[in-house]
UniProtKB/TrEMBL annotation:
UniProt-recorded Gene Ontology molecular function terms: zinc ion binding
Taxonomic lineage of the native organism: Eukaryota, Metazoa, Chordata, Craniata, Vertebrata
The UniProt record lists the keyword ATP-binding: no
Subcellular compartments: Early endosome
Main localisation: other
WD repeats: 20-51, 195-228, 238-279
Signal peptide positions on this chain: none
Protein name (Swiss-Prot/TrEMBL): WD repeat and FYVE domain-containing protein 1
GO biological process: positive regulation of toll-like receptor 3 signaling pathway; positive regulation of toll-like receptor 4 signaling pathway
SUPFAM superfamilies reported in the protein's UniProt record: FYVE/PHD zinc finger (SSF57903), WD40 repeat-like (SSF50978)
FYVE-type domain location: 281-352
Gene from which the chain derives: Wdfy1
Amino acid sequence: MAAEIHSRPQSSRPVLLSKVEGHQDVVSAALLIPKEDGVITASEDRTIRVWLKRDSGQYWPSIYHTMSSPCSAMAYHHDSRRIFVGQDNGAIMEFHISEDFNKMNFVKTYPAHQNRVSAITFCLTSEWVISTGHDKCISWMCTRSGSMLGRHYFTSWASCLQYDHETQHAFVGDYSGQITLLKLEQNTCSVITTLKGHEGSITSLWWDPVQRLLFSGASDHSIIMWDIGGRKGRTLLLQGHHDKVQAICYIQLTRQLVSCSADGVIAVWNMDISREEAPQWLESDSCQKCEQPFFWNIKQMWDTKTLGLRQHHCRKCGQAVCGKCSTKRSSYPIMGFEFQVRVCDSCFESIKDEDRTSLATFHEGKHNISHMSMDISRGLMVTCGSDRIVKIWDMTPVVGCSLATGFSSR
């Protein structure tokens, strides 16, 4: 049954259900326990905690475990109740959580990295734990033996990771702004391609294996959608955040993208419409509207006895234009521009009022969001930030709540 996208009133916003407080330092990761009223958190204060909701409505820690080094990343596999915690010292520790979530047993330590672990994923079918780190590498290790299977090095810190379990492809974002697509084998790997489009470090990735879409968020405040399975090279640019995008999650059933930024904004993007691809910026020695020379065009400046102008670009057509030919600003949501950007005067005239209708909603999370994860089946989201507070949100007023989406009313 196809998911229906209902029109949602602008007043709809995430509902804050609970705050979880108690960590003494930044909370680096938080995950909602599927089918349970519980949260698992890992923090720079070297503790991993499991919080369960009590009859009072408050969350209290049922497990409190202190590690040897600050916790920097975490992965949890609910069916096997295995949890993997990456640390600042490069090690990954595996634990097994009891059925009642009141006990956590140490399993083994993996010497995965030489520096801070930035992301972890666990693949049950291959029994691999895959991770990236600030030692500029991706590593994959065998969870049966605890031994290293392979490593691949990058030129910059590896900051985030997504993995396609079926095809064994890994997507790695790094601090240079590049995303590398790798095919992992038992003891080797091959680089399939690299994706370049961001002007800042990659901070978050999300892979949707159904539509074969990759979403990337970066410190340049933007999000890019890469159509990996479709038309080659197709990208969509989304610009609505005013700070670095820290976390993203794509809800395939409702065709919505949820993103969170460092300034606490939670955005929900409608991806169920035909969006336009932003044009490549054109280069020219003179304005492509009035033909006045740009300041580096010495010959034309000399020939016409005119002073060179500064080069700008129209975000809608991509043409190189001078300031006098691009005096207007406009939003253009169909191309991903949710706030006003520079457009040339002729493009401004072509944009109708209805073209400026927002295709995203923006909500205030009221804390610096450094990490987010969602339980899509329940429409719940957890955010954590540098304020040491973990917040649990009901997102169903924003992302829809119906049988078509699989969400259950709570």
